[in-house]
TrEMBL record:
Protein name stated in the entry: 33 kDa chaperonin
Superkingdom classification of source: Bacteria
Organism: Oceanobacillus oncorhynchi
Database matches in Pfam families: HSP33
Bilayer-crossing regions: none
Tagged with keyword DNA-binding: no
One GO biological process term: protein refolding
Any one GO molecular function term: protein folding chaperone
Keyword Disulfide bond attached: yes
Stored InterPro entries: Heat_shock_Hsp33 (IPR000397), Heat_shock_Hsp33_C (IPR016154), Heat_shock_Hsp33_N (IPR016153)
Keyword tags: Chaperone, Cytoplasm, Disulfide bond, Redox-active center, Zinc
Gene Ontology CC: cytoplasm
Length: 290
């Protein structure tokens, strides 16, 4: 399912402002996640929504990989994205298991806790930049803004809005990302934040065409311009090769038995649900190269 990010420049090219209704993309990801707990759904949806917004600032072969480690160190949220707008997100098996056991009443603040961290790897395979910060705000949006302030020294505003129904199904998701560029005036981003908060501007803009968006932005922020609509979509980069490791982890007896009984071994990617079948002849090869 494809959604788009609307990229704009406002206040005479001093602030980049992106916004998106990424409901369709997130619905697909949340459904595949099989998480039951509402707060956990909320946390994953927010993390993925933020990463989808960040994808619009990537160029060429750049990609971002995100790991959020919650206060319970086994509970992690993963998301990654690339310049092509491919986005995926999932949680660690321990968090998934915990989220299936109960639909608890804890808040996002409780789930994140006081010792959580954000770790982001950005760049190309050969030249990666990794930043790590803690999450003092315990609300995701401001924690990511804090990350950019700490690790990249940039003033950033992030607002994600996630609506879930009683069964934790995603009803609606939209988000805004604004970042001060070199030359931005002191306090410019605070001014943008105030405007967005005063009238729920994101919802208004998302229902407009480009000409209307430019008009609305210029009424509030001078010299504003819509640059482009960039597609974002759920995409898992898994491949059959990645699952050879799993087969190598099985015992020789298990593999031998599969070969002797001409039984295939099925593996499934827990992120996208795609299954990869290893036929007896392939299992034979694995046995020989172990
Ligand atoms: Zn996959």
């Amino acid at each position: 399912m494809i959604n788009t990010i609307i990229k704009t420049l406002i206040l005479d090219k001093s602030i980049r402002l992106y916004f998106t209704d990424n409901t369709k993309m997130l619905q697909e990801i949340m459904e595949l996640s099989t998480i039951k707990d509402k707060t956990c759904c909320f946390a994953l949806a927010k993390a993925v929504s933020i990463l989808s917004l960040l994808s619009a600032a990537l160029k060429d072969n750049q990609r971002i990989s995100l790991v959020i480690t919650l206060t319970n160190k086994n509970h992690k949220i993963y998301a990654d994205t690339d310049a092509g707008g491919n986005v995926r997100g999932y949680v660690s098996q321990a968090l998934l298991k915990a989220s299936r056991q109960q639909n608890s009443n804890h808040s996002l603040q409780d789930l994140i806790g006081t010792k959580a961290s954000i770790r982001m790897m950005k760049g190309l395979e050969m030249s990666q930049f990794t930043g790590v910060t803690d999450m003092p705000y315990q609300n995701m949006d401001d924690d990511f803004a804090y990350y950019f302030k700490q690790s990249e020294q940039t003033d950033t505003m992030i607002q994600t809005n996630i609506e879930l129904d009683r069964n934790s199904c995603l009803l609606k998701s939209y988000g805004i990302y604004a970042q001060a560029l070199p030359g931005a005036e002191e306090g410019a981003l605070d001014f943008v934040r105030e405007q967005f908060e005063a009238e729920n501007l994101a919802s208004l803009l998302l229902n407009m065409n480009d000409a209307e968006i430019e008009k609305a932005l210029n009424q509030r922020f001078y010299r504003s311009k819509v640059l482009e609509h960039k597609p974002i979509q759920f995409s898992c980069s898994c491949s059959k090769e990645m699952f050879y490791g799993f087969l190598y982890s099985l015992s020789a007896e298990e593999l031998q038995k599969a070969v002797e009984t001409s039984t295939s071994i099925d593996t499934t990617c827990h992120i996208c649900g795609r299954s990869y079948v290893f036929h007896p002849s392939e299992i034979q090869t694995i046995l020989q190269t172990r």
